[in-house]
Amino acid sequence: MTDFSGMLAGAWLSSAGATFLLIALAEFGDKSQLVCMTLAARHRPLPVILGAVAAFAILNLLAVLFGAAVAAWLPEWVVTAAVGLLFAVFGISALRYKEEEDDEDIEEKSGHNVFATTFLLIFLAEFGDKTQIAVAGMGSTSNTLAVWTGATLALATTSALGVMAGQKLLHRLPLVWIHRVSGAFFLVLAVLAAIRLIQNIL
Hints:
Layout: H1 2-27, H2 31-40, H3 45-66, H4 76-95, H5 103-111, H6 114-126, H7 130-141, H8 144-168, H9 175-201
């Protein structure tokens, strides 16, 4: 009985570890990590991390429970259009920042919505993404809880690394340049989403 339990525990850890390694490597440098990096340069790091982890936890849960069909819940063009619109709004908002504005007022207003902003951006950007489909595929062949745990820990790790990079690298820039860098980044993502939307329609 002990040997059997040990085998089960070993198989569970093996599935979780393999999922962690695969997803972490796939997401390293991906758009979700860059989003966390950019947001962390402008806002407090904890709400950014919590928002990203919450989004990934739900996305991975949907993936392991419903498999690849999760990506078909909404037409791809609807998700792509929503992502592009969100990125464009945040990009334009960041570029409109003026150096003479009161930084404390801006931080106070945006701080209440950092968690929701991060959650929404990550959730829509990663919905139906290759990583979620990979998690769905692994969940259909391995222990679902192990796959969910490994994938969520991997994405939490890459998000935390992105936040740390944003705090240490981008945060050294003057605030006005942080807003310009993040605004340009979000607009690039919006353009990429628009190109993808056009390709889907055509």
